[in-house]
Amino acid sequence: MKETVIKVENISKRYSVGQAINGDLRSTISNFFSGKKKNTIDNDFWALKDISFEIKKGEVLGIIGGNGAGKSTLLKILSRITVPTTGSVEIKGRVASLLEVGTGFHPELTGRENIFLNGSLLGMKKKEIIAKFDEIIDFSGVEKFIDTPVKHYSSGMYVRLAFAVAAHLEPEILIVDEVLAVGDVAFRKKCLGKMNEVAQTGRTVVFVSHNLSSITRLCSRGIFLENGIVKFAGDIQKTVETYLQTTLVNSESDLPLLDRNDRSGNGLLRFTKIKLLDGLDNAISLIAAGEPLTIELAYRLNDAILADLIIRIEFRDANGNYLFVCNSRVGNGLFLQIPKSGMVSCTIPKLPLNVGIYHLDVIGKVNGKEVDVLTNAVKLTVEDGFFFKTGKLPTPYKGMLVEHSWNINEIT
Question: Is the peptide bond before 149 cis (omega within 30 degrees of 0)?
Fold first, then answer.
């Protein structure tokens, strides 16, 4: 049985609105020298409430949740940057954290000096740091600027070097926040590969990200936080599905969209309702693979004159990965002039999606400019069906469904 390296028992974290944050050393020192006093207003905010879990040695744990769920607060407690208001945390082993741009780096020191500073803070000897030095520089890609003070680095350079240090100086526990979003796509891919490599060597990784695809690819177990409490903990795929089921707009037979305040676009046109219909024109939220699907979009114009309307409906899987798009420009829907209010429909004769939960993003453009953009506009659940003539799908069967045929001939 694997050893438990992180044990969190009933921790809660309380902040007082308008007050200095208790337990944050940097804030305490800053307030002391600036002469600020504690505000006595009794207005408490609980960032975390009664959180408990354990992490085994070599485990890769993903923590997900919306903004303000308490993810970063939890990581700061695990990194010993702040302390819980109640409860206890036991950690066995050296911890390296990468929580935000600048964590653990002194801006006046060079990249080279910061590598040695970080290594010393992790409890490493100088010869250990020297042994890893070239590998760190090569991974970070900032060799040209290694003797430049890091205050002159771009945010991307900062993160590349900080991650390289955290991952290569062999901590027993690596804690990484969404900070990787600062890097480019190639570097993020490189980081995910390195974290997987770290886990393969028996070290522990705690990873927070809004990129659900990365989370499911890297992690084996997950925790879903909402409003400071654990909503679900368990298998990573089930954790992600629970999170999406909770956060995605649930499809009903007639879903109003006008109340959505998370849309973008210039507002010349607004989608007001969205409906999913089966082949018999019944309103649905669940459909079998291979069945016909129609998406109806009611709209309202805020300007009587409209030309060159393009509507895109993007299908994404449970992890937010793009699958395919229905585009009115290429699907014989050239809407050059339309009524001030009306209904646009798009029909897919044979839905090419396998069993799972999906969501649709809706984008409207006029003369190339976005007028209304709705992410997670509606959720669609697909169940097993007879997409192929041979019957239901083999299990497991992942990905898109494509009609095809096979043949075999004898070679003489």
Answer: no
Which residue in this structure is represented by tokens 């291979």? 290
d(CA 93, CA 255): 51
Separation between Cα atoms, residue 58 and residue 197, nearest integer Å:
11
H/E element holding 377? Answer: strand 369-383
189 alpha-carbon distance from chain centroid: 14
Longest dimension (CA), the chain: 94
Instruction: Tell me the domains of the chain and their CATH numbers.
Output: 4-247 (3.40.50.300), 255-383 (2.70.50.60)
Kindly report the pTM of this predicted structure.
Answer: 0.60
> What is the SS3 assignment for 5?
strand
pLDDT digits (tens, 9 = 90+) for 118-146: 888 777 788 888 998 999 899 888 899 99
In eight-state DSSP terms, residue 357 is E
Distance CA 295, CA 275 (A): 6
What is the spatial distance between Cα 56 and Cα 198, in angstroms, rounded to a whole number? 14
Model confidence pLDDT, tens digit, residues 154-204: 877 888 888 888 778 778 898 888 666 556 667 777 777 888 888 888 889
DSSP helix/strand/coil, 111 = helix
Residue 162 burial by Cβ neighbours in a 10 Å radius (0-12, 13-18, 19+) = buried
